[in-house]
Amino acid sequence: MINAKQMIGIASRDRNGFHRFGDYHDRMTTTPDLIDDGIWRWTARHPDWHPAGFGDEVASFALKTDAELLLIDPLLPSDPAPVHELVDAQAGADGIAVLITMPYHVRDAERLRRKHGKRCTIWGHEACASRLTKRAGFHAITPETELPAGARAHAIGSPRRQEQPLWIPAHKALAFGDAVIETGGRLRVWEDDLDSEQRTRWFRDRFIPTLKPLLELDPERALVTHGESVLGDARAKLASALRSKPWNRRSAG
Hints:
- 19% of the residues lie in helices and 23% in strands.
- By secondary structure, the protein is an alpha/beta fold.
- A 7-stranded mixed beta sheet has the order 3-4-5-6-7-8-9, with helices on one face. It has a 4-stranded mixed beta sheet with strand order 10-11-12-15, with helices on one face.
- A hairpin with a 4-residue loop joins β11 (166-168) and β12.
- Residues 1-10 and 21-28 have low confidence and may be disordered.
C-alpha cells in the first residue's frame, strides 16, 4: 500500500477519476509520479513529434505486481536516472518486463535491458523485432500469450492491427498505445476523419466492435500514452468513448 512518504509525490484525482496534479506539485512529470497504489507515470518528449501541443509529450508507466515489475511503452526522459532508480527500487530481485502496446512504442526498451541486464525482458507484437538491434530477451506475443504477472494482449482492428491493448489484472488496468487517448477530460477513440459513408460504416460496424470486448474486463483504470490516466470507473468512460465520434487533431472537439 502507499505509505506516507510516497504520498508526497502522488497525483490527485479529479471528480471524474482522471489523475491531475495539485498546486503543490511540480507539473514537470519527467520524474516518475506515483499516481495510484503501485502505479507510476512519467512523461518524455516524443522523439518524432514536431508540432507543439497534443502528442508532443507521451506517458510511460511502471506497475508493481506480486511478480515482475511491468514497464509499459517506456520512453526515457532526458535525465533517465530517476526512472532507473525507480526500476531498481521496485523490481528488487524480481524480473522486469517491458510490455509494448505497438511497434512504434518500442522506444527505449533496449536501453532498459542494457541497463538492467538479462532480468529485463521485452514483450510485444512480432513486428516490434524490426525496431530492435537484437532479439535477445524479446518475446513475440499474441492474444493467446500469457504475459508476465498474468497480463494479456488483446487484438483490435478490422483488419487486425499491430497495436494490442494490454490488460493488467493485478491493477484492473487497460493500457492503450494510440487507439484510445484522453483529451478534454474524456477518453476518445483516435482515428482519422470519417469523411465518407464507407468510412463511417467501417468505424461503426467493423472497428468499434473489436474494442467492445475490452468492456467485459470491467476495467477500473485506463493508462494512456497520450493524455491523462483514468484511475476510476474506466469501463464507463471507455464505453462512452466507443459511443462517440472518433477524435483526431484535425477534427478536435
